[in-house]
């Protein structure tokens, strides 16, 4: 088979389309023929060598995909996320690396049979983004109908998922994005779109909710964490799931910028959190690889919402798998709206 390999840490040009060994499923695993792969910002960080648990080069990146079961290892039929895995089954899967390939072996417990009406492109756009948003908002954050949430980078993959899930659960949304994406935010249904190039999110939130809001969902880092925290009221939750500000538009890490943003990141003293009745929550989906009992019902609910027309992945752009470097550059340049997907056939 062929795969995209990170030959050394660095900019998008280190991604190489090459031959790779054909994988074979062991007990409890399935071999998948890959049809589509979702790109996440974590893939970009892994390529740079700054994402936790990233293998040493050379390695195949990618955390999620959709495709068809080709072969089932011993015992895998009973271990599938919904059981009854067999050759030809259409599934989405969490891979935790190795997704940028024509074929992938995954644990059966990390596969999710997809609805008949769902395309492979849509299915590949769901696991990481929608599980990150759902887990943050309703598992860790315990949001309720009528609560208010600030979603930074609301036009990105997790941002779109969070907005859709918020609307499905009757939440009031604030969403930040650049000036070219404001119309998209309005079409998506964001109640209070914020153009971060000319508006201060704290000012907008406090005008609407002077007492503060219930959640801020932030993966930018640095000054953005500080602003998001200040938007919260009593019982507010700051959920952090990334630190994208350390990566520049050319796909390189700026260590000077990273140091500056680390210094700008607010320190959260426990006594201060007690006094303000505020929680700070970290979410890292990659650390939940062995929590299929937690993720499985969440994915089932996401698929139910898809079937009901409440959520639908926004595919901003697709690239052939062999053009993964171009796809990474596209995301680094902040051009994407919604999800960028690689097509393997």
Enumerate how many helices there are, as a single number: 12
Number of strands: 15
How many domain regions? Answer: 2
Question: Unreliable runs, pLDDT <50, ≥5 residues?
Answer: none
Q: What is the CA–CA distance across the termini? A: 12 Å
Instruction: Evaluate the radius of gyration.
Output: 20 Å
What is the helix fraction of residues, given as a range? Answer: 25-40%
Main pleated-sheet profile: 7 strands, mixed
For CATH, the homologous superfamily of the largest domain is named as: NAD(P)-binding Rossmann-like Domain
Query: Which CATH C-level class of the largest domain is it?
Result: Alpha Beta
CATH architecture group name of the largest domain: 3-Layer(aba) Sandwich
Strand content: 15-25%
Describe the model.
- This protein has helices at residues 41-48, 76-79, 120-124, 127-140, 157-168, 182-188, 201-208, 223-230, 255-264, 270-276, 292-307, 324-332, and strands spanning 2-6, 15-19, 29-38, 64-72, 90-94, 103-107, 111-113, 148-151, 172-177, 192-195, 213-218, 232-240, 279-282, 315-320, 339-343.
- It has 345 residues and is α/β, with parallel strands linked by helices.
- The protein has two domains: 2-126 and 313-343, Medium-chain alcohol dehydrogenases, catalytic domain (Quinone Oxidoreductase, Chain A, domain 1), CATH 3.90.180.10; 130-286, NAD(P)-binding Rossmann-like Domain (Rossmann fold), CATH 3.40.50.
- The strands form three sheets. Strands 3, 4, 5, 6, 7, 14 and 15 form a seven-stranded mixed sheet that branches.
- Helix 4 (127-140) packs across helix 5 and helix 4 crosses helix 11 (292-307).
- The chain is globular, with a radius of gyration of 20 Å.
């Amino acid at each position: 088979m062929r795969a995209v390999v990170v030959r050394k840490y660095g900019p998008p040009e280190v991604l190489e389309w090459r031959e790779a060994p054909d994988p074979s499923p062991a007990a409890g695993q399935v071999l998948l023929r890959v049809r589509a792969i979702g790109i996440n910002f974590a893939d970009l960080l892994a390529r740079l060598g700054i994402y936790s648990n990233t293998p040493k080069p050379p390695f195949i990146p990618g955390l999620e995909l959709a495709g068809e079961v080709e072969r089932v290892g011993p015992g895998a039929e009973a271990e599938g996320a919904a059981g009854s895995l067999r050759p030809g089954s259409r599934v989405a899967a969490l891979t935790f690396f190795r997704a940028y390939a024509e074929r992938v072996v995954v644990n059966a417990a990390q596969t999710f049979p997809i609805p008949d009406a769902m395309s492979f492109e849509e299915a590949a756009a769901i696991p990481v983004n929608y599980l990150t948003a759902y887990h943050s908002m309703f598992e860790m954050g315990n949001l309720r109908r009528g609560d208010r949430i600030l979603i930074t980078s609301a036009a990105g993959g997790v941002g779109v998922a969070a907005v859709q899930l918020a609307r499905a659960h009757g939440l009031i949304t604030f969403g930040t994005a650049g000036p070219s994406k404001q119309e998209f935010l309005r079409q998506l249904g964001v109640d209070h779109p914020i153009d971060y190039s000319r508006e201060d999110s704290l000012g907008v939130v406090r005008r609407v909710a002077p007492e503060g809001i219930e959640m801020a969902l932030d993966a930018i880092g640095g000054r953005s964490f500080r602003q998001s925290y200040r938007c919260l009221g009593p019982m507010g939750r700051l959920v952090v799931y990334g630190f994208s500000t350390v990566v520049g538009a050319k796909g390189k890490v700026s260590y000077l910028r990273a140091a500056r943003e680390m210094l700008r990141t607010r320190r959260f003293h426990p006594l201060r959190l007690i006094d303000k009745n505020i929680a700070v929550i970290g979410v890292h989906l990659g650390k939940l690889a062995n929590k299929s009992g937690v993720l499985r019902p969440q994915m089932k609910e996401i698929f139910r919402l898809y079937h009901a027309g409440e959520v639908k992945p926004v595919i901003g752009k697709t690239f052939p798998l062999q053009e993964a470097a171009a796809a990474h550059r596209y995301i680094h340049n902040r051009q994407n709206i919604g999800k960028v997907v690689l097509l393997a056939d």
